[in-house]
């Protein structure tokens, strides 16, 4: 069972056989009951998150999801967390030590940067940001405990050469963590490029229906040990209901991503010809400066990308956003529906925008008819002409 499309269907279904069903049962439990004292003691000899101990550390439903994520990621193990952000922050916090250094890629997810600049700094951790492998190479030293990247960055859609980053990390024996949510394991085989810890907001494509908060971290048992200890100590666990829904979402992940890709490439190509669009930030386009790197790293393109609109005032921008009917206004992505996220200045994910400057918005292209989405955008663009 080597093909990921087959793994998506068949992994994480061990408990289904016992219940004579296609899907594993949803097991909710606060208390795990053992048949005897020896079994109770044995549960505490096994790995946290992979051995039933107490409801908080996971029921069979949670462990089915973790085993499926590990399998499709070509990894030994997986830790499910309460949401994508807790997955990111648990990795950073687990490797944070006073007097040590963490190197983070510039333009990462806004809440990650906010956590690094406030919480990690208070712990006495030195946090430095880098834009490329040359800057990383000049910053890394024997005090570096973690390198953190995101591909592509969630608003500016920038790509970094992950292979070179991993090579630098390996040469210094420093673990490399990467937020790989955009590509999912279907389009981005993170561990093949030397990434030690791959982080996924399963909230997004993995679940795919905008009704679950869930995070996942995959890697080897060794690389995940510090994170496992941190999550156990701080009570960072995933709920069985979330894992059960995400397991259901996994079954159609490759099919949904194919449609997201088809729609996104079509609409991005259409947007290139629109005079109201000054720039497209989408590495899957041949015109993108990151296109060749995208081809090397990814086997497909996900639905989110950003556009820069022509300069407009606040009222024009508000009319543009409010006139869209098929694009909901929201900060997430990865569900079946199309979304638009304005990068307004007060937002954690925003860049500074002055009056009459070009406006940056992120689009998530959903599963609707692609021409209907273009027509919706076209009607909104007309408001900018007014």
Structure explained in plain terms:
The protein is of the alpha/beta class and 386 residues long. The chain folds into two domains: 247 residues, Aspartate Aminotransferase, domain 2, CATH 3.40.640; 133 residues, Aspartate Aminotransferase, domain 1, CATH 3.90.1150. Helices cover 40% and strands 15% of the residues. The protein has 15 helices and twelve strands. The strands form two sheets. Strands 1-7-6-5-4-2-3 form a seven-stranded mixed beta sheet, with helices on both faces. Strand 5, helix 9 and strand 6 form a beta-alpha-beta unit. The radius of gyration is 22 Å and the shape is globular.
List key phrases describing it.
15 helices; five-stranded mixed β-sheet; seven-stranded mixed β-sheet; Aspartate Aminotransferase, domain 1; Aspartate Aminotransferase, domain 2; 386 residues; 2 domains; alpha/beta; 15% strand; 12 strands; 40% helix
| Spatial ordering of strands, largest sheet | 1-7-6-5-4-2-3
* Mean pLDDT across all amino acids: 92
Shape descriptor reads globular
User: In the CATH hierarchy, what is the class of the largest domain?
Assistant: Alpha Beta
User: Strand tally, please?
Assistant: 12
- Number of structurally distinct domains: 2
**Count of separate DSSP helical elements:** 15
CATH H-level name of the largest domain... which superfamily?
Answer: Type I PLP-dependent aspartate aminotransferase-like (Major domain)
CATH architecture of the largest domain: 3-Layer(aba) Sandwich
CA radius of gyration is 22 Å
Organism: Thalassotalea insulae
Catalytic activity: L,L-cystathionine + H2O = L-homocysteine + pyruvate + NH4(+)
Keywords: Lyase, Pyridoxal phosphate
Cofactor: pyridoxal 5'-phosphate
